[in-house]
Amino acid sequence: MTDFAGLIIDSQAKSIRINQIKVEGLVHTKHEFIQAITEPLIEANTLGDVIIGTRNVATQLRGLGIFKEVSITLDANPNTEPDCVDVVYTVVERPRIDARTGADFGYNEGSMNMSLLFRNAFGKAETIMATSSYGVDTTTSLQAPKDESVSSTGMQGASAHQLTFTKPLFTSSDQMLEANLFKNDRNHTALMSYQEAVQGFTASIKNTISANSLYEVAYNAIWRENHSLSPNASLTIRKDAGHSLKSSISHSFSIDTRDDTVFPTVGRYLRVFQELAGFGGNVSFLKNELNSLYVQNFNNFISISGSMRCGVLFPLSFEGSNSGVRVNDRFQLGGPNSLRGFSQSGVGPRESKDSIGGDLYYGVGLSALFPLPVLPSNLFRGHTFVNGGSLVRMDKSNIVESTTNLFANPSVAAGVGLVARFTNFRLELNYCVPLRATTTDLPKHGFQFGIGMHFM
Amino acid sequence: MLRCKPVYKEPEQNEEAILFAFPVTKNLSTCMEVECLKIQTTLIFSHFPFSLSEIHEHNFSPSGKLPCLLVDGKVYAGRDIIIQAAQRGLDIDSFLSPTQKSSMNAFKSQVESKIGFCLDLELWYDSHFNSITLLQRGISYPWPLNLIIPRLERNQKIKEMMASRPIYGQAQICLDGLSLLLGDQQPTTLDAVVFAYIHIILSLLSKSSTDSKLRKFVLQHDNLVQYSRRLWQNWYARVDSVASSLQS
């Protein structure tokens, strides 16, 4: 084997030419689309170039997500010159239609979901996916928020319908064009005394710069209706009742070099997000968010991570526009995924029992993961943490005072618990001890359960 | 646990009552939504001290329908507003005898169901929708919601109207009766109700490019026109030449 590998290495510079490239097994995929991917191979003129090139093309074909199998054969054709080879890709297309249904039941709650995927719809690796979820008296959102921001809030009774179209922008899955039509109903009555009907359209271009960095630009047109207010809803929530249209352009960039997203031992994560709203519609603002995490391993035993999140929302006033930022756009802070030791949206501005959100926030956390005796360390880890942060309203006329207010009274909690791996998700059960809170915060002393992909 | 001062101070409650109602319609001096104008007029007749705050959204109200009244930190809607006004101000119907009250309630009901139906029909179903209602209801929304939301409301309104189908003739009978009943005495809640309808019929429907059958019925009763104009001049301090010309 070593001799064979050596032979290949020694022959890398050997002059060789590709006679023809054949792709066998295409049923629904358009030949011209695949030809555009394989075409650069013709340029190869050494054995090394041919081997690397054919592998890269195979990786690109697999990345499209439309082939179950991709195999390569380099075939010396007796009818051509001696230094010529034929490259043959044999592919097996994945089924075009994939339908799934599911149901979850718990104590006084349940949800059902359906999805239908139409793969390679027009023969150029396009996908059309329809998903629909209905929840009855559930306590968590059925659909993870798109921007992973702290504004994710728990909700009771939610439904979501979405139609997504994706296609490679050119020939690679590294640059994808995505269009979404969606309609969601969300019940925020437990936290903010209103229900929300959201429907809209987003179009985005996702560019995978490298294996661990992603760049995304999107246009969003979202119609929100805050309705069915509770009888005791605060005046601020009432003033934001009704219809609003957000028309915005957003941008996000993320780098993730962590060795494991659930139990990271080394690496860093950084995500920046900007959104500018006000291109039509009746809300206008500039929103900026940063989410970062750094993790380091000590003695192959304990991993310590430090994380920081912050965000600022500037209301903008364009002449002639009916400017205004709604509770829907403001940041929320508190809960197992953002600030442990506090109830969901339990930190920051509050009117009666409503969390009315803020324009300026930060959160920092220090967390340690360590293996536990008896329990397998790939599935369970011990966990201890301390985290703190604050969320305030911004007074545009006095930004200095708003910033001082932000750092003057942080809400802090510490705790210890157990972390478990569940596919790509992380489950946490922590015993939390709030150390410092404002008089309007909702500290949660005792056990707190959280599930998600991003934690402080 | 250390407790520190909150990062946000709730706005102080306004001591004066606030009536949240649809905005004053452009060039027409009052709100042109019957419920809002009716309640506003009743409060004025009651000498109930309040300030007016303009709101575009029915969702603002606890009942899902404007207007609503904020008083002592609580928000009241529908009949509760009149009850609050009666408890805190002057019950303008108190001088009526039980028989008169009964007769007044019957008339109020007639106005609400018959004239109200016809006004809704003209504003939401007939050609006036495009020239008046669509513009009026859509003005507070950005494109394209200004075209979508009024039409959604229209569908809802038509469904409600289909549930009860009084006809123009009944409105005419009601107007005939009213023209005989109304006089110069101290205003009652009936006057508030009648004024709200007559004023809107005369003012708003005059803006339409097509003739209004309902407005024509009212104009046939000169005393109703004079009555509406008199109430306007006596009770609405902001009376101006624009309003007078609109009522003429």
TrEMBL record, chain A:
InterPro entries: Bac_surfAg_D15 (IPR000184), D15-like (IPR039910). It holds the Pfam family Omp85. Residues 120-455 form the Bacterial surface antigen (D15) domain. It is found in: Mitochondrion outer membrane. The keyword Membrane applies. GO terms for biological process: protein insertion into mitochondrial outer membrane. It is a multi-pass membrane protein. GO terms for cellular component: mitochondrial outer membrane. Keywords: Membrane, Transmembrane, Transmembrane beta strand. Signal peptide: none annotated. Belongs to the SAM50/omp85 family. This is Bacterial surface antigen (D15) domain-containing protein. It comes from Boothiomyces macroporosus. The lineage of its organism: Eukaryota, Fungi, Fungi incertae sedis, Chytridiomycota, Chytridiomycota incertae sedis.
Automatic annotation (TrEMBL), chain B:
The keyword Cytoplasm does not apply. InterPro entries: Metaxin_GST, Mito_Protein_Transport_Metaxin, Sam37/metaxin_N. GO terms for cellular component: SAM complex. Residues 173-230 form the Metaxin glutathione S-transferase domain. Keywords: Membrane, Mitochondrion, Mitochondrion outer membrane, Protein transport, Transport. Residues 36-151 form the Mitochondrial outer membrane transport complex Sam37/metaxin N-terminal domain. GO terms for biological process: mitochondrion organization. The keyword Mitochondrion applies. Pfam families: GST_C_6, Tom37. It is found in: Mitochondrion outer membrane. It comes from the Eukaryota. PANTHER family: METAXIN RELATED, METAXIN-2. This is Glutathione S-transferase. It comes from Boothiomyces macroporosus.
